[in-house]
Amino acid sequence: MKKFSLFLAVLFFLFSGLVTAQASEVIVVVNGEEVYRDEFDKRVERLKYHVASIMPVDFDDPEGQEWLQVIESRVIEELIWETIFMQEVEILDLEVSSEEIETAFAEYRKDFETQEEFDLFLKEAGFTEEEYRELIHTNLLIEKLLDLQVEEFELTDEELRDHYDRNVDRYRQEEKVAARHLLYDEEEKAQEVLEEIEAGADFADYMDDGEELGYFGRGRMVPEFEEAAFAMEVGEIKGLVETNFGFHIIYVYDREEEKVPSFEDLKDQIEEELYDDHYEKQINLYFQKLYEESQVEFVENGI
Question: For residue 3, which of 275, 269, 270 has the smallest C-alpha distance?
Fold first, then answer.
């Protein structure tokens, strides 16, 4: 089971003690191996592209400069840890086949409907297709390295059952209703629509004035709305319900009662949770070992 994302989640915690105030330096030496500015700059630009694609940010203004410092620090961390990992890969003489790389590449490629969309992504992110394959190659090697650090881990049905019995409240599924609502500022308008629906008009015809809320449990809505919705039967339409937002007409179209899934329903989920815990503990120990053994020197006047 691949847990590459797990090691990324804990990497920065461990590395915070390894990177000193000199982390803004560009050229570092990791266990005798040099890391150069051109690779640093390339990755900074890629990460800036990623950040800008999910949130508005101007890297020239003060707030953007703060983001840039975070990006540069993260890139330094990634480069150093990647160098350490690849040194370990070389010591262990690990390899991945071209078939493994192409399979992973095809999986990433599936996120794009056309080759043109994929090419545009590569261009904007600062990758050539070959560089993207090399990134996949590196990730696969690191996954293999990390998987080797995890001891075999098997659980009996008795152990899984014991975990279920001790943690049964964690798996309790709360009562939920699924609803849509129409909302009006004016009571007169809301009353008019309600009467039309009660006379046979389709609730859906008025949804330009409403919202699909989906499933929600208690404590998610304002009290007046929640009290009304949870008191309703499936298929019932109720109004007018007044809240500080206005006047609501509520349609409840489904309900899920509170329940605790059986052990059999949760067995696979519990096994995966416990394996993930085991994996993370083993990888943390490995990180700590590498952290203690590694020498990272930031080159003076490296920028």
Answer: 275
Q: Please determine, for residue 57, whether its predicted confidence score (pLDDT) is greater than 70.
A: yes
Distance between CA atoms of residues 231 and 218, nearest Å: 12
Q: Which domain holds residue 72?
A: 4-153+266-298
SS3 category, 69: helix
What is the pairing mode between strands 33-35 and 296-298? unpaired
- Report yes or no on 303 lying in a domain: no
Residue recorded with tokens 């890969």? 89
Do residues 109 and 100 touch, judged by C-beta distance below 8 A? no
If asked whether residues 51 and 116 sit together in one domain, one would say: yes
Mean pLDDT across 24-45? 84
**240 torsion bin: left (phi>0), alpha (psi -120 to 50), beta (else):** beta
> What's the DSSP call for residue 19?
S
Higher per-residue pLDDT: 232 or 64: 232
Give me the CATH number covering residue 10: 1.10.4030.10
Question: What DSSP line would sit under 229-248, residue for residue?
Answer: HHHSPTT-EEEEEEETTEEE
Separation between Cα atoms, residue 203 and residue 201, nearest integer Å? 6
At 36, which amino acid appears?
A: Y
Q: Which residues pair with 282 in a beta bridge?
A: none
Q: Give yes or no: residues 128 and 277 share one domain.
A: yes
Mean pLDDT in residue range 88-97: 95
Tell me if 148 sits within 8 A of 92, measured CB to CB: yes
Where do we find the tokens 């996954």?
143
pLDDT at residue 16 tops 80? no
Residue 167, token pair as written in the block: 């943690």
- Count of CB atoms situated within 10 Å of the CB of 239: 21
- How far is CA 51 from each of CA 54, 67, 154, 290, rounded to the nearest angstrom? 6, 9, 40, 29
